[in-house]
Amino acid sequence: MGATAAGIALLMLLCLGQAHGDHHYPNGVGGAVKEKKCDYSQGRWVYSSSYPLYKSSDCPFLQSEFDCQKNGRPDNLYLKLRWQPTSCNLPSFNGIDFLRRNRGKRIMFVGDSLSLNQWQSLTCMLHTAVPKAAYSLRTWQGLSTFKFPAYNVSLMLWRDALLVDLVNKNGTRVLKLDSINSPKPWKGVDVLIFNSWHWWLHTGRQQPWDVLQYKRNTFKDMNRLIAYKLALTTWARWIDSNIDSSKTQVFFQGISPDHSSGSDWNEPKASCRGQTRAQVLSHMSKPVYLLNVTSLSQLRKDGHPSIYGYGGKRGNDCSHWCLPGVPDTWNQLLYASLIHEI
Ligand SMILES: *[C@@H]1O[C@H](CO)[C@@H](O)[C@H](O)[C@H]1NC(C)=O
Ligand SMILES: *[C@@H]1O[C@H](CO)[C@@H](O)[C@H](O)[C@H]1NC(C)=O
Ligand SMILES: *[C@@H]1O[C@H](CO)[C@@H](O)[C@H](O)[C@H]1NC(C)=O
């Protein structure tokens, strides 16, 4: 499990870091930042009496699968842990400041249910900061928009687990690793936070495609790490040619570790990791900031809903995270990078 996360983290670093070979930021930071910044990815979890940052009961729109307390989780130490980076402090989260800084902006999470997890966390953090401010929440054709009209800030979620095109050809679901042509609402958004990983591992009935296609070739299956690399390269090209980095900030959420003991984490072959190192030649010219949440989340096996997700009805959830919980820290990292980069 750890080895896979490390393999992917390495791959992402290579994909995202390519364009910035002459910069050496610890977090794989893009070109815009001048000074050397703190590495938030290294640290430890410490007890804090002022945590959690909000109560789930103060957040009426929180989906029940993340609301572990409401689902009967009896312990609460997992709510009281704050991330302490080794060599600096994370700025404490100031929701009003976040809203003011982002006035008139659209912020969009793009990815799978872990994006949903982080989006829900951020909307809860902000709503509890301005409990009297009106908000609206609408979902239309796969796009959910949470809006604070007084601040003119929209926090959006676009569910897109694989990022590249998944098309239906005569009843066959074809995943096109080299194509992002289907309509994507990402364009023109001010802040984009992408995430994609977990669905690349699914096999059997959970696999969202029937065949994979790359250039003119069709594959029944292939090494998933390679498929992911090809798709991420396609995504990187899309970003390079469609994003105006004077307007849009792009983040990539690192792998959120899955602590299930099942076979989801296919151990990548050592040779594959070596190949990744040699082969990934991304041509990204736009800065992308990696939110490296992997290691800090890895330490929080206790943060998953386990049997207290989905109202306790749907087994053992070791992929998502209870809210309040670990994704709140991901958003603190997002906040920290937004305030340092602006
Ligand atoms: C993420 O942070 C961990 C801990 O500092 C580090 O070991 C890992 O290399 C980082 N991953 C990337 C892709 O930068
Ligand atoms: C709100 O922000 C949008 C951009 O997201 C802008 O087009 C619009 O003019 C703003 N509205 C007000 C009332 O400031
Ligand atoms: C779909 O099926 C029809 C008839 O079976 C065939 O003519 C057509 O070429 C197929 N299209 C694709 C994209 O495979």
UniProtKB/TrEMBL annotation:
Similarity comment: family membership: Belongs to the PC-esterase family. TBL subfamily.
One Pfam short name: PMR5N
Record carries keyword Chloroplast: no
Name recorded for this polypeptide: Trichome birefringence-like N-terminal domain-containing protein
Gene Ontology CC annotations of this record: Golgi apparatus; membrane
GO function term, MF aspect, one: O-acetyltransferase activity
Signal sequence residues: 1-21
Location in the cell: Membrane
InterPro entries membership: TBL, TBL_C, TBL_N
Residue ranges constituting the Trichome birefringence-like N-terminal domain according to the UniProt record: 36-89
Record keywords: Membrane, Signal, Signal-anchor, Transmembrane, Transmembrane helix
Membrane disposition: Single-pass membrane protein
Chief location of this protein within or outside the cell: membrane
Residue span(s) of domain Trichome birefringence-like C-terminal: 90-277, 278-336
Species the sequence originates in: Vitis rotundifolia (Muscadine grape)
PANTHER family: PROTEIN TRICHOME BIREFRINGENCE-LIKE 43, PROTEIN TRICHOME BIREFRINGENCE-LIKE 9-RELATED
